[in-house]
């Protein structure tokens, strides 16, 4: 008798639910909905934000799923308390002021340290989705700067 059959027989004889059943795989596609269009003054291209955690005194954090269409990116900006980015889909870029562009892929995590000027967005040919986690919001959330120039954006080697 196979192991699956023995497990099922044992579960039935003990009156337990059949734990040998398989669970269907999750449907492919994004983890969270696309959300609403991000404020145009702070982004170049199509960017969408889906809020996950609203700021409150208990957690002092804000979290959103952010989707950048190909070629889209944030302006340069600073997070007074830092920011964590968890890439969930696609390919994109992250750059700190004075540093080369870093290529991002699904499963990567970025730790933008407090006060470090940076930008992030999709690659020219592929979309990027990440979860943005802004902690210690009592120190402030974001201070926006100027747009990333085309020359800066296309400087990835």
Write a brief structural summary.
This protein has 157 residues and is mainly β. It has helices spanning 3-13, 150-153; strands spanning 36-37, 43-44, 47-53, 61-68, 73-74, 77-78, 83-96, 102-105, 109-112, 118-122, 128-135, 143-144.
What does this entry look like structurally?
The protein has helices at residues 3-13, 150-153, and strands spanning 36-37, 43-44, 47-53, 61-68, 73-74, 77-78, 83-96, 102-105, 109-112, 118-122, 128-135, 143-144. By secondary structure, the chain is mostly beta strands. It has one domain (33-153): Sandwich (Jelly Rolls), CATH 2.60.120. The longest helix has 11 residues, at 3-13.
Blueprint (SSEs and pairs):
Elements: H1 3-13, E1 36-37, E2 43-44, E3 47-53, E4 61-68, E5 73-74, E6 77-78, E7 83-96, E8 102-105, E9 109-112, E10 118-122, E11 128-135, E12 143-144, H2 150-153
Antiparallel strand pairs: 1-3, 2-5, 3-4, 4-11, 6-12, 7-8, 7-9, 7-10, 7-11
Which descriptors apply to this entry?
mainly beta; 38% strand; 157 residues; eight-stranded antiparallel β-sheet; globular; Jelly Rolls; 12 strands
User: What is the overall silhouette?
Assistant: globular
Main sheet properties: 8 strands, antiparallel
CATH superfamily: Jelly Rolls
- Computed Rg: 21 Å
Strand content: 35-45%
Distance between the termini: 59 Å
CATH architectural arrangement:
Sandwich
- Indicate the low-confidence ranges by residue numbers: 3-14
Here the CATH topology equals: Jelly Rolls
Number of helices: 2
**What is the C-level CATH assignment?**
Mainly Beta
Number of strands: 12
Percent helix, as a range, is under 10%
Mean pLDDT: 88
Find the structural class using helix and strand composition. Answer: mainly beta
What is the H-and-E element order? HEEEEEEEEEEEEH
**Integer tally of domains:** 1
């Amino acid at each position: 008798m196979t192991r699956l059959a023995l497990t099922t027989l044992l579960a039935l004889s003990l009156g337990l639910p059949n734990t040998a059943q398989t669970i269907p795989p999750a449907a492919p596609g994004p983890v969270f909905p696309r959300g609403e269009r991000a404020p145009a003054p702070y982004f170049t291209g199509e960017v969408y934000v889906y809020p996950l955690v609203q700021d409150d005194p208990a957690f002092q954090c804000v979290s959103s799923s952010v989707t950048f269409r190909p070629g889209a990116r944030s302006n340069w900006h600073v997070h007074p308390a830092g920011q964590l980015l968890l890439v969930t889909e696609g390919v994109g870029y992250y750059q700190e002021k004075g540093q080369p562009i870093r290529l991002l892929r699904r499963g990567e995590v970025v730790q933008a340290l407090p006060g470090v000027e940076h930008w992030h967005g999709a690659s020219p040919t592929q979309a990027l989705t990440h979860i943005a986690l802004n902690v210690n919001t009592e120190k402030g959330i974001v201070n926006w700067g100027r747009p990333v120039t085309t020359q800066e954006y296309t400087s990835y080697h």
